[in-house]
Amino acid sequence: MKIKDIITYLETIAPPAYQESYDNAGLIVGDPEQEATGALICLDSTEAVVEEAISKKCNLVIAHHPIVFKGLKRLTGRNYVERVVIKAIQHGIAIYAIHTNLDNVYYQGVNGRIAEKLGLEKTRVLAPRQVLKKLSAFVPPSHSDSVRQALFAAGAGSVEGSELLSYATLGVGTIAGTAGAQVKLEVFFQAAQESPVRKALLDSLEGQPHTYEIVTIENTDVRIGSGLIGQLPRAMKEKAFLQHLKESMQANCIRHTPLLGRPIRKVALCGGAGGFLLGKAMAEGADIFITGDYKYHEFFDADGRIIIADIGHYESEQFTIELLYGIISQKFSNFAAYCTEMTTNPVHYFY
């Protein structure tokens, strides 16, 4: 099995198209054609993690956070980023990051794992994204069924609550002044599937005359987006919930806004730095919003309407390691995958 086989599978779960514009998810270092000897899974690909990969004979490090966010102009080992890249190259170790694209998927995503730890029910994406597109293609009637089936096989036709959904309109088209019957096929698909959908269309037409367009539509996809909201099976008192949160997320401490004297039932959350979702959490009527990396002045934005609970960036995402381990182990049962033994949290606490 090659490194690219593992990457390809991971990207069926969290396609690169779903990452944020500032992100750098994907293969950062290494040869995708190299045979995979083992994978070490971590949050951060630090020097200690690369050393651990060497000791475990793993030539693939799968990290949540990219080691490189911006372009490197030189590799002299002057900082930890350059040293990690140099060491990985020297030892033939590939580094792959699956970051905000894994944050932004509902199924097997980062936020879903947090909700599972907290025991939330009736969960859904807090801020769904506009990632749907529509293909409209004019095809000969003789090819309409085969084209439709090829598009379905490529992943088109799947929208909320419906599978294998398409629309067909029979009309008259003209080519070089000659009129003839044409079928207008329309299917919806996720943006990440554009390349295979386009290829399926062209291959299935077998050289027949055709015209098509692909447009982005305004509909949101409830399976893709930022954050998550759900509810507890039973309401809890504020301090009891904070204790539950601390224990469930193995957080050393929780920074929070003033308690409001109301029970906690509806919970909004976002792994990592999710402060941008506070307004959405309040609009959805959440009793508490859980995330990390909150700044002093941002706590005032709760405005007595919601509790903000900052559990720490690392603490909110640490279970991503076991999430990825489960995904890989279930698919590649005979492959050597390991969870890192290193704690890469750069934040320490003095008690």
Topology overview:
Elements: H1 3-13, E1 26-29, E2 39-44, H2 47-55, E3 60-65, H3 80-90, E4 94-97, H4 100-103, H5 110-118, E5 121-129, E6 132-139, H6 144-153, E7 167-175, E8 178-190, H7 194-205, E9 211-216, E10 221-236, H8 238-248, E11 255-256, E12 264-273, H9 278-283, E13 288-292, E14 307-310, H10 313-317, H11 320-331, E15 337-339
Parallel strand pairs: 2-3, 2-15, 3-4, 12-13, 13-14
Antiparallel strand pairs: 1-4, 5-10, 6-8, 6-9, 7-8, 10-12, 11-14
Helix pairs in contact: 6-7
Structure notes:
The protein is α/β, with parallel strands linked by helices and 351 residues long. It folds into 3 domains: 3-99 and 319-339, 3-Layer(aba) Sandwich (Udp-n-acetylmuramoylalanyl-d-glutamate--2,6- Diaminopimelate Ligase, Chain: A, domain 1); 110-128 and 223-311, Udp-n-acetylmuramoylalanyl-d-glutamate--2,6- Diaminopimelate Ligase, Chain: A, domain 1 (3-Layer(aba) Sandwich); 132-219, Alpha-Beta Plaits, CATH 3.30.70.120. 28% of the residues lie in helices and 30% in strands. It is built from 11 helices and 15 strands. The protein has helices spanning 3-13, 47-55, 80-90, 100-103, 110-118, 144-153, 194-205, 238-248, 278-283, 313-317, 320-331, and strands at 26-29, 39-44, 60-65, 94-97, 121-129, 132-139, 167-175, 178-190, 211-216, 221-236, 255-256, 264-273, 288-292, 307-310, 337-339. It has a 6-stranded mixed β-sheet with strand order 5-10-12-13-14-11. Strands 1-4-3-2-15 form a 5-stranded mixed β-sheet, with helices on both faces. A 4-stranded antiparallel β-sheet has the order 7-8-6-9, with helices on one face. Strand 12 (264-273), helix 9 (278-283) and strand 13 form a beta-alpha-beta unit. The longest helix is centred in the middle third of the chain and has 12 residues, at 194-205. The chain starts with a helix and ends in a 12-residue tail after the last strand.
